[in-house]
Amino acid sequence: MNVKELIQKDKYSLVARAYEFARKAHLGQKRKNGEPYFTHVVAAADSVLEWGLDDETAAAALLHDVVEDTPHPIQEIRETFGEEVAFLVDGVTKIGKVRYRGIEAKVENLRKFILYLSQDMRVILVKLADRLHNMKTLYAVQPQKQKRIALETMEIYAPLAYRLGMQRLSGELEDLSFPYIYPEEHKWLIGHVKERFEERERFAQKLRPVIEKELNKNGIESVRIDSRAKRYTSLYKKLLRYDMNVESIYDLVAIRIIVPSLEDCYSALGIVHKMYPPVPHRFKDYVALPKSNGYRSLHTTVFGPENKITEIQIKTEQMHDEAEHGIAAHFAYQKTKDSKDYLKRNAAFADKKELVWVQQLKNWQKGFTNPEEFLASLKIDFFQDRILALTPKGEVFDLPFGATPVDFAYQIHTEIGNHCSGVKINGKIGTLDHLLKSGDIVEIITQKNKNPSDSWLNFVRTGSAKNHIRAALRHGKTTLNKSEPQFTDFRLAVANRDGLFNEISNLISRSHGNILTLNAQTTTNAKGGQAGNQKHTLLKIRCAVLAKDKSEKMLEKLKGFKEIKEISYKSV
Ligand code: MN
User: Fold this and answer.
1) Cα of 70 to ligand 1 centre, how many Å?
2) Which of 5, 20, 35, 68 is catalytic?
3) Which of 272, 294, 153, 149 lies closest to 208, judged by CA?
4) Is 321 labeled as catalytic in the residue annotation?
5) Separation of CA 266 and ligand 1 centre (Å)
6) In this prediction, what percent of the chain has a pLDDT beyond 70?
7) Number of compact structural domains in the chain
8) Do residues 188 and 50 share a domain?
9) Helices 357-364 + 327-336 axis angle, to 10
10) 115-129, pLDDT tens digit by residue?
11) Residue 300, in any domain of the structure
């Protein structure tokens, strides 16, 4: 139900009152594209309702810009709409405060997100709805601002949506940002893939009824088949790995088969493989082994009719919903479905060692049958025994409560753990047994000749850190004597540009370089002339050791950046 429909149902409801309040408050204000400002907050509220959130969240979405942009203070919101709505509005207002510039701002922003995430996830969801509409109307904003906002969306909001399991939103945000950040690449992409997209789409249309008939014949009823065109941004990322050759991308348009039950997924897979032979090594069972953000589905690639290689995804309606709406899907299920039925259909998630907080959240909330109770404890319980800490680069790591810098170091990389010698927490020197809190920025200091001490076993919290420490203690003596290089260090002198560090580290990761640390030292070149005041940065990137040919290859690729003035590497 959207805002309009809710209001028609009940003119005096919370949402209807918030609607009237916001309409009056924003009266006369205009968006940059000339539309009444009010359209923006209604769009945000429609999004959160579409994601299945409650009335309080919809009201907060309607009121989210009132405190910032109109004379009405937060106390008035609290008196008129109550504590809950006021808390959400206040959170959304505060989260927007950090203007995005550079890596520190990114970290500070993430920190705020995490702190709110740990208090009430709905704040984040309103913020995402706000950003979605801002991106849709970004064309009307001044060009210098466009890029900053798009970059922030690409680096913070889209990954956050992804981590919350909201894949559709994440993809949409990326696609909305892409043309502002990479205008040339975007133009190239549209020019090169549009026809192929259309051709693959027609092919998928033809294939749908053929597959449906065969599934029905084999007793799988009420099947829904549609096709999913790959998003431009994810296509572009993939093309970078395939030498920009569109011909080699098989999932340009994937066929999506939605079946009633989990068992049907595997039966349908068998039927499809009988119709069309599978391409070897392309089958992925994300049902038994979900992705770290909770995504579940069977993926296979087959030699279809006319020998066309085609990707097929098989999932249930609920898996589909979760993939589209992620964490928000659970609010919807709580609200609309009979809870017993819901519990039955919610298959157990496989345990995975990596960032699993979305899955844990999903598992954890199964214990609640009533939505109010669920919401209340969502705010308190769950995040009390998990903490999210960041590296100075803004990478987020998920740890159990009571975790220490040593646990954090091992989460980053085994070698970082094995050689950690000290730590800075929020810029201050700390001890290795310090208890970390959510939002802490943790910088691990390593020393090559430093090795784990058995005293660490007394305070580390995670099992994986314990295992690594024990293993290192066992092998300690033998590895100590080896003088084989452990790291490959790249030194780059670069001219600063927004987003450059990210692109460089992405390129290294794509080329299978495992970045351990990244240090940047900025110097202002104050020489006179036109080039005066231009900022230069000395970038030191340490990777897990790379073979010589790999390092050379990496060097060649990095030389593609025109901002890189000097580059060298050595293995140490
Ligand atoms: Mn807004």
Assistant:
1) 12
2) 68
3) 272
4) no
5) 44
6) 81
7) 4
8) no
9) 10
10) 666 567 788 889 999
11) yes
Closest CA to 358 of 336, 337, 378, 333: 378
Identify the CA nearest to 181 among candidates 232, 157, 146.
146
| 279 and 237 within one domain | yes
Cα 60 to middle of ligand 1, angstroms: 11
CB contact at 8 A, 352 and 359? yes
The region of weakest confidence among 175-184, 334-343, 372-381 is: 334-343
| Residue 68 known to be catalytic | yes
In this structure, are 208 and 134 located in the same domain? no
Of 50, 55, 69, 433, which one is the catalytic site residue?
A: 69
Model pLDDT for residues 539-565, shown as the tens digit of each residue:
888 888 888 888 888 888 888 888 888
Q: State in Å: Cα 68 to ligand 1 middle.
A: 9
In a domain, 524, yes or no: yes
Q: Say if residue 51 is in the same domain as residue 144.
A: yes
CATH of the domain at 424: 3.10.20.30
Tokens representing 271 are: 């039927």
Select from 278, 303, 323 the last residue of a domain.
323
CA of 31 to the centre of ligand 1 (A): 10
User: Residue 420's pLDDT band (boundaries 50, 70, 90)?
Assistant: very high
The confidence score (pLDDT) of residue 298 equals: 95
Cα–Cα–Cα angle for 426, 429, 432, rounded to 5 degrees = 100
Whether residues 276 and 303 share a domain: the answer is yes
Ligand 1 center from residue 190 Cα (angstroms): 30
Which residues does residue 537 pair with via DSSP β-bridges, in sequence order? 494, 522
* Whether residues 7 and 128 fall in one domain: yes
Claim: this prediction has a pTM higher than 0.70: no
Q: Are residues 106 and 194 in the same domain?
A: no
